[in-house]
């Protein structure tokens, strides 16, 4: 099931902090809601992705805390390429770490492929989040699709 097509009140439901995060994070990202997305992170959270230097023009691939993470989420809310879809089929967890895949083959075509790995703190917020990119998603970076259209 593709959760991005479900009503927001349904996808944010969950019986455990892990399940709530699985639905709430995808919901906030798919609806370009930078405020809701940032609210899911601890104040001193760690975020790591190849997208960090690509969009922020810095020499490192990680951000620490709301102040550093917020600008990335603001850019994502307005500049995601259309090939960024939200199809996924489930998650893995040990009760604190949450991992899921956005596979390249989304059943109805290709999407950007990622593995999301999050560690939640005792308050159920994201303390550490690393995004691992697959080949299809990496090609989107190589083609500069996050920057296209901004000055056209």
Topology, element by element:
Elements: H1 8-11, H2 17-30, H3 34-38, E1 41-48, H4 51-56, E2 62-64, H5 65-79, E3 91-93, E4 97-102, E5 114-120, E6 126-133, H6 135-142
Parallel strand pairs: 1-6
Antiparallel strand pairs: 1-2, 3-4, 4-5, 5-6
Q: Which key features would you list for this structure?
A:
alpha+beta; Nuclear Transport Factor 2, Chain: A; 152 residues; 6 helices; 6-stranded mixed beta sheet; single chain
CATH architecture classification name: Roll
Strand % is 15-25%
Strand arrangement, largest sheet? 2-1-6-5-4-3
Question: Can you tell me the CATH class?
Answer: Alpha Beta
What is the percent of helical residues? Answer: 25-40%
The biggest beta sheet, please? 6 strands, mixed
Q: Which whole number gives the mean pLDDT?
A: 86
Structurally, how many domains make up the residues? 1
How many alpha or pi helices? 6
Low-confidence stretches: 1-12
Q: Provide the succession of SSEs.
A: HHHEHEHEEEEH
User: What's the shape?
Assistant: globular
Number of E-state strands: 6
Q: How much is the radius of gyration in Å?
A: 15 Å
Instruction: From the 3D structure, determine the CATH topology.
Output: Nuclear Transport Factor 2, Chain: A
Distance between the termini: 35 Å
């Amino acid at each position: 099931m593709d959760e991005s097509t479900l009503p927001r009140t349904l996808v944010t439901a969950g019986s455990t902090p892990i399940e709530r995060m699985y639905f709430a994070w995808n919901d906030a990202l798919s609806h370009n809601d930078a405020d809701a997305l940032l609210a899911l992170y601890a104040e001193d959270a760690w975020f790591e992705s190849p997208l960090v230097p690509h969009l922020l023009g810095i020499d490192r691939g990680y951000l620490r805390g709301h102040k550093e993470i917020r600008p990335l989420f603001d850019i994502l809310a307005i500049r995601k390429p259309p090939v960024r879809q939200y199809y996924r089929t489930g998650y893995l967890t040990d009760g604190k770490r949450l991992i899921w895949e956005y596979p390249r083959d989304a059943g109805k075509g290709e999407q950007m492929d990622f593995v999301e790995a999050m560690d939640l703190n005792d308050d159920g917020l994201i303390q550490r989040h690393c995004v691992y990119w697959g080949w299809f998603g990496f090609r989107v970076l190589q083609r500069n699709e996050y920057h296209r259209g901004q000055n056209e």
